[in-house]
Amino acid sequence: MTSVAIVTGGGSGIGLAAAQYLSQTHRVICCGLDHIDEFPDDLEFRELDVTDENAVTACFSDISECSALVNCAGMIVQDRQEFEIQNFRKVIDVNLNAVHLVTNSLVDALAVAGGSVVNIASMYSVFGSPNTPAYSASKGGIVSLTRSHAVAFAGRGVRVNAVAPGWIDTRLASNAIHNEERRNRIMERLPMRRFGEPADVGSVIAFLVSEEARYITGAVLPVDGGYSIA
Amino acid sequence: MFNDLTGKAVLVTGASRGIGAAIANGFAEAGAHVAIHYNASREPAEKLAESINQSGGKAVTIGGDFSRSPEARKTVEEAATRLGGLDVLVNNAGAMVDRRDFVDIDDELLDAVNDLNIKSLVAASQAAVPHLEKSANGAIVNLGSIAGANGGGASVAHYAAAKGYVHTVTRSMAMALAGKGIRVNAIAPGVINTDFHAATPPEILNNLKSMIVMGRLGDAEDCVGSALFLSSRKASGYITGQVLHINGGQYMA
After folding, report:
1. Nearest chain B residue to A22, by CA
2. Considering only alpha carbons, which residue of chain B is nearest residue A151?
């Protein structure tokens, strides 16, 4: 039987890149609110609101074994709108609470397969963000949640790690990357002098869920061209 | 997963035994050409090279005493000459030298630990730069340690601090060498069951094991995938300046 990999937010960006790597070794199921028009035919897509408990349960009701879960669904609200409490709550719900919800709903299936989880942290897990406080708080929370799940599920043979992407050319980062002034400022500080591609993160996720990483759990690995050290 | 390492020239220092030997063998299995550096253990180094060469790989051995940094430079030059260049340097040579209570650590022990774990790592890396910058896949992987992050135990301050240096210099080197297209990262093993722990008292090992949520000590093979991963541009081309912890979930619980 082919092992199953589930990627939330797998319809675009980093999630889709991870799904494409994982499809070399897994049957991949992408879930999320939407997917790009060019979504590949060979990947399965299930429409899902990851914050909806009943929908999550229903979505995975047929999954008895899962060898990889990538919690990639995420959102950001621009233009300082995250200072509004309803937006703040919404971002925390999608970026943090839903990761706990989805992992919890799949942990039995992960244990059966000896599987592993990769969460998406961020450089904003560590930095303060002047304009997106909910996004950065949610990603700080992801680091703690990753470690807690790593400790909680190790006894069941489930590893849990996170990647912390820097400036990756996706729709979440497009505001910054396509604003010339911000783009130049970022580039000045970025040791590798290039923005990342979703595939740069996808390959790291594929490593972390593989047997090559079998003794790694609770780790948070930045994928940022050196931005966070500079 | 790391098929871009095929044909790459790789020097692994301190590769006659333990983690270094496993990493050297892992590179050979990925199709890389490896230089196996050894100090005291010539015989196991030659055995490893022989087994690699017999199974269709390519390996050479180079002796050198890394308690003296000029020998580290010489080892790198010899590796580059014999492999026809250098794409990857794995700075694995290192040791604790002795377990000693903090109040009893003297200059002699500090010098011995720092000469081996710090000065030779810096010297080998400097010597490698002119070769690595010619590669499209230039990468350095340093061996840090969980001790470098958490201070080790009560009797290993000298070693833990040297590994803390390795973590920090990894970040500094990453910034300094990014412009030359060289990525620099470290792996930080937890408690790995090799000769390194031959002299560790059993009660300390048992206590350490009880803190590892995966419920087992690591083995040398557990470190191989991460060293290959951080050396492979295809797999980790956007990662530099990072320390990847391989510890079965030790220090969180």
Report:
1. B1
2. B213
Contacts of B140 (CB under 8 A, 6+ apart): B88, B89, B90, B91, B125, B128, B132, B173, B177, B182, B183, B184, B185
Confidence at residue B252, expressed as pLDDT on a 0 to 100 scale:
58
**Residue A213 touches chain B, beta carbons under 8 Å:** yes
Interchain pair A218, B213: CB under 8 A: yes
pLDDT tens by residue, B135-181: 999 999 999 999 999 999 889 999 999 999 999 999 999 999 999 99
pLDDT given for residue B239 in this prediction: 98
Strands (E), A25-94: 27-32, 44-47, 68-71
Domain ranges of chain A: 4-229
CATH of domain B3-246: 3.40.50.720
Q: Please state the φ and ψ torsions of residue B88, each to the nearest 5 degrees.
A: -140, 135
How many Å lie between the alpha carbon of B150 and the closest alpha carbon of chain A?
Answer: 15
The dotted CATH code for A4-229 is: 3.40.50.720
Contact criterion met (CB below 8 Å) for B32 and B209: no
CB contact under 8 A, A154 and B214: yes
Domain spans, chain B = 3-246
Taking only Cα atoms into account, the Rg of chain B, rounded to an integer number of angstroms, comes to 17
Residues B243/A144, Cβ–Cβ less than 8 Å:
no
The reply to whether B159 belongs to the active site is yes
Distance separating the N- and C-terminal Cα atoms of chain A: 45
Interface of B with A (CB under 8 A): 1, 171, 174-175, 178-179, 190, 213-215, 218, 222-226, 228-229, 234-242, 244-249, 252-253
Is the reported ipTM for this assembly greater than 0.90? yes
Residue B96 CA, distance from chain mean position? 14
So what's the pLDDT on residue B200?
Answer: 86
Q: How far is A84 from chain B (nearest CA, A)?
A: 34
Interchain pair A221, B248: CB under 8 A = no
Give the pairing type, strands B9-12 and B88-91: parallel
What confidence category does residue B196 fall into, taking pLDDT thresholds of 50, 70 and 90? confident
| Cα angle: B66, vertex B90, B11; to 5 degrees | 80
Across A113-119, average pLDDT: 98
* Distance, CA of A21 to chain centre: 14
Nearest chain B residue (CA) to A194: B238
pLDDT recorded at residue B223? 98
Which of A216, A221, A224, A227 to substitute to test the interface with B, most B CBs within 10 Å? A216
The answer to whether residue A219 neighbours chain B at the CB level (below 8 Å) is yes
